[in-house]
Write a structure and sequence with these properties.
The complex is a heterodimer of chains A (about 450) and B (about 425). Helix content of chain A is about 35%, strand content about 20%. Chain A has about 450 residues and is α/β, with parallel strands linked by helices. In chain B, the strands form seven sheets. Chain B has an eight-stranded parallel barrel with strand order 3-4-7-8-9-10-15-16, surrounded by eight helices. A four-stranded antiparallel beta sheet of chain B has the order 5-6-14-11, with no helix packed on it. Chain B starts with 5 loop residues before the first strand and ends in a 21-residue tail after the last strand. The chains are: A alpha/beta (about 450), B alpha/beta (about 425). Bound molecules: flavin-adenine dinucleotide (FAD), flavin mononucleotide and iron/sulfur cluster (3 copies).
Chain lengths: ~450, ~425
Amino acid sequence: MTSMTTPGIVPGRLQADDYARNFDDLYPDFEPHEAMVAADRCYFCHDAPCITACPTEIDIPLFIRQIQAGQPEAAGKTIFDQNILGGMCARVCPTETLCEGACVREMAEGQPVEIGRLQRYATDTLMAKGIHPYERAAPTGRRVAVVGAGPAGLACAHGLARHGHDVVMFEARPRPGGLNEYGIAAYKTPHGFAQDEVEWILQIGGITLRHGMALGRDITLEALREEFDAVFLGMGLAGVNALGTEGDDREGVRDAVEFIAELRQTQDLSTLPVGRHVVVIGGGMTAVDAAVQSRLLGAEHVTMVYRRGRESMSASDYELNHAATEGVRIITDAMPVAVHGNGAVREVEFAYTRQGPNGLEPTDDTFRLPADQLFRAIGQRLDGAPEELELERGKIAVSDTGRTSLRRVWAGGDCTGGGEDLTVTAVAQGRDAAADIHTQLMG
Amino acid sequence: MADLRSEFLGVKSPNPFWLASAPPTDKEYNVVRAFKAGWGGVVWKTLGLDPHVVNVNGPRYGAIWGADRRLLGLNNIELITDRPLDVNLREIKKVKRDWPDRAMIVSLMVPCDEESWKTILPMVEDTGADAVELNFGCPHGMSERGMGSAVGQVPEYIEMVARWCKAHTRMPVIVKLTPNIADIRHPARAAKAGGADAVSLINTINSITSVDLDNFSPEPMIDGKGTHGGYCGPAVRPIALNMVAEIARDPETHGLPISGIGGVTTWRDAAEFLALGAQNVQVCTAAMTYGFGIIKELTAGLSLYLDQKGMTLSDLQGRAVPNVTDWQHLNLNYVTKARIDQDLCIKCGRCFAACEDTSHQAISMSPERVFEVIDAECVACNLCVNVCPVENCITMERLPAGTVDERTGEVVRDEHGDWTQHPNNPMASAAE
Ligand SMILES: Cc1cc2nc3c(=O)[nH]c(=O)nc-3n(C[C@H](O)[C@H](O)[C@H](O)COP(=O)(O)OP(=O)(O)OC[C@H]3O[C@@H](n4cnc5c(N)ncnc54)[C@H](O)[C@@H]3O)c2cc1C
Ligand SMILES: Cc1cc2nc3c(=O)[nH]c(=O)nc-3n(C[C@H](O)[C@H](O)[C@H](O)COP(=O)(O)O)c2cc1C
Ligand code: SF4
Ligand code: SF4
Ligand code: SF4
């Protein structure tokens, strides 16, 4: 019988119902009564700091007031007016660093209004009714190509379609949604929500999805610029940073994003193999998600190792605490120096780091962690951007409204430089680019 | 989106939400902010004749809060405008010119003599305002000077002043009623008799919100003393709703346009006023508590409700009035029993305490804390429903006709039967 202590990378470490429980909604939707109690705490602040802290500037006091007034559907509409992926954002936003972090009640009591969960309650209520609260304007005859069906691309496409433009989305992967479908932790968006949301967004009409179409492989930017009135690039970050450590190519060493994508596409998680001793290198959301989900799949020991201090980790305190609660061990200020093993990884050797004259450097103080699986989660990067585009620190250079260096080409989301790499930021950028494209097309 | 455009006495506004005469409508600056936020109209803060009154220079408000500081009731000792008449008139004229699509109503309170009204009305007319509202309501300060509720409490005065106003202006005249009276129908009838075009209600209710138990003074305390003030906000809504309904269904005033005021805070409150016969609503405390931004919730909410019901605004107006009746006409053959949903019950026992101690001993409690209704005792009073902390855990279910009410041993009848026909009623009109 396979169990948590079975050596190697094997599937089925847990009982069937453990998987269902482990990967179910981390925070289930509010019951109506819970929502009323949570909503009651909102003060309807003037010029509310929570709005400013939301990258899509949702009118939070208004939507919470609408919940108080017994109309969660109206609240949902208020949210979607600013953020058409408000349902996903309610599930995946690191609210503790965004709206809830800015809530006056967080400041006063260390207990913010539960904006994220209230947002989910409102958006779920509206979506469950099958209502799509927008109508497409009369067709304009203008055509726009959107590359990448992630949050940025979807928000942009919806905005454009609403204005009556025809949108064709080119998506390299077999399914739309971007990292909503292939990246976000499974327990944040279970029950096929990512696909349901895409379907709901497409109800606006006027959007054609073309799968298996990769820019640079199946299509060129030049051709798109010729065929369409405008192009929006929202292709995220397809590349992954390498460790550059000796033994990095051993069996059992893998990119965390690829593992997560496989996990997200696996119907029966008891068939997904995972190590007994898992080591994750990195300090961001991807590292946390790989570590936590390894534990949830039944890995006995999971350790996250980050080369700097905890304060430099891009994962929030909240995410790190969640990882710790799930039994992930977090080691900071250490970097990998060698991956040992005979063909397959067996141990990873780390050195503690210190700040040297030329930046971070390893010390002589080393230690080894047993590992039959090692995940690299030290960042993604833009891969295969069309050459004619100007880049800035490795990402597509854009203006506030997403204009690139090329005429009639816009970009947004992770593939561009502005803002944090978050779902909600991608939505804001896609939305704003759509508005600018519309103005340009009609101007 | 339902069409919220509204008309009151021929005065158009983009929605049926006006700001009531009070600090939110005190001057151009506030009113312009309100219009920018989307309010349909305003009743300007009550004007009086110069020399203008003065207000206290200490606190004007007292309040009642819920545990989380939610403001439930507000009390004030503010008087009418404390700015010169010509300043107000100039601003009114300017705002009306800049915002022609919004309702501009001017509230007035001058001494109870014809000359005073005759003086001020043309001045208001000159501003281009849409109508006047006669403030017969303020319960403090002004009433001591023979104005406000001192007039509003005497139907003959109301009729007299309304008549003067109708004689001296072509503007529509709204009479704002005070609730500090035994039967609201009398001042409403008087307003109508005097020729008023509409009534608005309620103004604030005489009150002392709290007493400082260290200094032994009512709040708000001014140098060791306090006075009664006018109560408003969510707490007064039930009183206002009843008064609106009474006027709406009174045969003598039926059809007289009503502007509903008192505790309107959400779209729902507004919808309830409209259903009970108001043609529009006025808001004061909710705006004072949360700012003008609440208009977005009010309009979006009312519009969504109308859409969901497939109704227009005018369909809603007065929709519940035919269903407001006198006690004697309530159907005594409508027999219900409380029902406890055991899956929802959290076993707190509040229903038991309420029924056992203060009602009809109709709930049983087992050693395992299972609470059940005893049909043979349950009079269907609804107290347990109201004290149960879990919504919909206790419901009232109607006994179908033909079944036996275990409490009375009688078969539940199908037909309507009320007190007017009951054998115990010495005045019963229909024989058994
Ligand atoms: C593991 C992980 C967990 C995360 N968790 C969170 C979280 O909890 N909360 C949060 O806010 N953010 C989270 N993020 C970040 C968030 O997912 C991204 O910021 C967001 O998805 C960016 O949206 P996007 O539309 O720019 O790119 P993506 O979501 O990456 O979408 C890009 C799309 O373009 C397609 N594409 C790529 N190249 C091409 C091409 N050449 N031609 C055609 N199509 C192409 C891709 O297949 C993809 O569908 C997480 C990221 C990762 C990796
Ligand atoms: C501070 C304050 C001042 C008010 N001043 C006036 C006034 O000058 N004239 C008037 O007709 N009503 C006045 N009112 C009464 C309001 O217009 C309104 O009738 C009452 O507050 C009930 O509505 P609400 O519950 O929405 O506040 C005042 C109310 C408050 C709170
Ligand atoms: S900051 Fe907090 S209390 Fe204030 S409006 Fe936002 S959610 Fe409500
Ligand atoms: S609300 Fe404004 S005017 Fe009133 S006491 Fe406070 S600061 Fe002063
Ligand atoms: S009050 Fe409600 S929850 Fe409490 S015991 Fe009675 S039925 Fe149950």
